[in-house]
From TrEMBL:
Residues 612-648 are annotated as: Disordered. Residues 375-609 form the ABC transporter domain. GO terms for cellular component: plasma membrane. It comes from the Bacteria. InterPro entries: AAA+_ATPase, ABC1_TM_dom, ABC1_TM_sf, ABC_transporter-like_ATP-bd, ABC_transporter-like_CS, P-loop_NTPase, Type_1_exporter. This is ABC transporter. The lineage of its organism: Bacteria, Pseudomonadati, Planctomycetota, Planctomycetia, Planctomycetales.
Amino acid sequence: MSVAESGLMGQQKSERSYSTGHLLVRLLGLAFRYRRACVVVTVMHGVLVLLNLATLGLTGLGIDFLQSQALHGSAPRWPAGIAPPSGWSPLQVVLALSGAVLAGALASAGVKYAAAIASAALSQRVLLQLRTDIYARLQRLSFRFYDSGQSSSIINRAAGDANNVRAFLDGVLIRMLTVVLTLVLYFVYMLQVHVGLTLACLASTPLLWVGSVLFSRAVQPAYLRASELGDAMVRTLVENLQGMQVVKAFARTAEQAVKFQAANESIRSLKFSIFQRMSTFQPLMGLLTQLNMLILIGYGGRLVIQGELSLGSGLFVFAGLLQEFAAQVAHITGIVNSVQSSLASAGRVFEVLDEPEEIRESGTPVRVRGVRDSLEFRGVSFGYVPDQPVLEDISLKLRAGECVAITGPTGSGKSTLLMLLKRFYDPTGGEILLDGRPLPDLCLADVRAAAGLVFQDSFLFSSTIAENIAFGAPEADREAVERAARSASAHEFISRLPAGYDSPVGEHGANLSGGQRQRLALARALIMQPSVLLLDDATSAVDPETELEIRQAIERVMRGRTTILVSTRFSTLCQADRVVVLQSGRITADGTPEQLLERSTWFRRLAELQSGAADPAGADTGESGAPKTLSLTELRGSVSAGSRRRAA
Ligand code: ADP
Ligand code: MG
């Protein structure tokens, strides 16, 4: 199996190439897991074939009997010597035969029903299992996998491709077994009626095989392409839904609609061309089998006239069998079609299932409950893509309970640093130690639970406020939810909502303001009572009033917790015990806010731009037109004003 190098990660085009043989073996392996159900359905289809043969044979007998009565021909050859009692009138015999045909038809209908139900039950079970497997795997995949921007493709794989894979069971395997079984049984039956006629009628069969192979080659590449186009279509749809505001704001609705239509159109034309090929092929195959009828009438007719073949059990039954043969052969086209679509989809599904889990814990993970002593980055380097380092040689040690702020220009790697602590990614060099133990030695769930992370832009689920807050602790009661909300300064605005804690949160929190979402996210992190709090620019997107509220909330919740606070707000930075300046992935300064005024020009500039201004939080780094030059003493004054709480 070709794994890591050709994986999905970091690649635009991502087909891990599986050989057809490999895919078939794995699909058969899947079928083997459901072998009992497969066998049951196949046997039912076998019974159906036998019932078909029986009713056809009985009808033939009826014709032979009538012929012997009406035209004084020879008496029919009763099968296995079971003749009707000699006392029966011809009418009674005919009625008995018709009754038997009817019984056969009824039984056939019953078995057909049972087979359809069993087959549907099987395929739904397989589909459920496949989707569950894909979902489970997605939960364990690293962020690296998602960074390659394949979420639309994944949606398509879990929805469409999984369905095509399960079609391998009922649409290919079982149908193929049924067709083979049918053809063999028919063949044996025909041989037993007349060997010469059978061979003459079926002489063209090898041509069917050649035709199927040709058809299969013609549609194979098209199916893979169809799934890829499906990805593109889902992507356009998903991005439009998520970016609806932008689309509308920039008045691009019409263009986006055209784009979506184009994506749909390419799928339509491809599917249509597959359908066209199938539609040419199917009648051709049908035609071939119908030619056999000519042979039957000519050669078979002669045999009847010569008295070598009976009209009913011979010619009539043969005609029926040839018709059935043609129908079964027509199925082969469908099967070949399904095989190709199943194989193309199987490659895409197995690709997800085989994607390696990047973040692993050691064989004997150590359980931890938060930070007792220290949290340390030791010479940590990291890059999302090889050869493009985002963090270089970061060494930083936090004592338990300390609050360290990280600041620096956009793109300097601040958020990345927090992600490494959560083990969303692992460093490419150096290590991160929790109480002296490297993170990979610790239980992953414990590491993640130990650190509460509030993102810059927090994702909320479309459920109620209370459920969103209790996301990480579903067993939390209302009291705990409220406590967390109070700590996050969210209780007040929640109480003002019409349904309070039971108010619905729109998709992605659409009906809440940025500051409200931010405080909900804070409450959601707090309810887990994390010993480490990671706040990523929690005050970047809010108005000064809200910023103050959030800052107060943060101050409250920081107590007793080890906190890493990412921010470019001077006022927020002053709350920290220590500030670290990160520039282009390297630590360029480290110290108390006061010390940094002298040590870091970047921090000094930030302080100048943001303190002493009329609007305390209005001027952000780099965007102010007229920076105010303040003396160091004045700046020190604003630092200590900001960090009052530390003295308390
Ligand atoms: P900051 O939070 O300091 O603004 P980030 O840590 O978000 O910076 O990003 C640091 C660098 O890493 C940036 O150059 C950014 O383009 C890059 N980066 C961030 N996330 C990813 C990602 N998922 N894949 C690839 N590159 C990324
Ligand atoms: Mg960031």
